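Now for a chain:

_____
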Amino acid sequence: MKTLGRHSEKLRELRRWVRNRPAGKVVVDGRRLVEDLVRWGVPVRELFLSSGAAEALAGETWLSEVDRVWVVADSVMEGISPTRHPQGVLAIAEEPAWAPWNGGWGCAVYLERVQEPGNVGAVVRSAAALGAAAVLLSAGCADPFSPAAVRGSAGAVFRVPIERDLSPQGTAARVGEAGGSAWATGSAGVPLALWRPSFPVLLMFGSEGSGLSPEASELAGGSVTVPLERDMDSLNVAVAAGILLQSLRDATR
């Protein structure tokens, strides 16, 4: 471990990366997340610890898996952390590279203009946990590797393939060419209990406010809905994704 002064170039670089991450790098905040990345074999290139965190982690064997470990004064780390309640642990990891999903098996989730990082992260978490093959994002979606999205995913952004800036036309064509089906999601459509999609399946979710665009909806072979009670007219996009993914999982057992 090496101690950094508050005016060091390395800390100036870290501040820039927290505000605007460079291509290929991911800022990961929190002890549990960083430990998970190391356990999963994700390359963690640099680790920044507050003085208190460095003392608490002394002797942890996983630290030896990190290329460079820096120690920063507690007050300085609090000013750098992207969270309101920092844990004194910030890592720089490599953004994963995945082969494009070819529509050949399972299901994938497509998000169109979902702008809340926490929602994007939560959808990725559900996709990873419930067996989706990929998460596909349109232009205008939040960065899935921003600190808020990484936290919302519980690190799942490193566990399931993610593709970005995809058009609904090209994405729907992938699953169609593989003999599968694309499904819109919303307040109207086939009730979930009667839904019998052909695989592979593309689940298409729209933005938090306006839902899927008309252009994306027209590309779907149908629409599926989760019937709601108590006059509720919608679900959070991550909740809806989790329900539909679990339904697909049950159908394949």
The mean pLDDT is 92. Residues 9 and 15 are 10 Å apart (CA to CA).
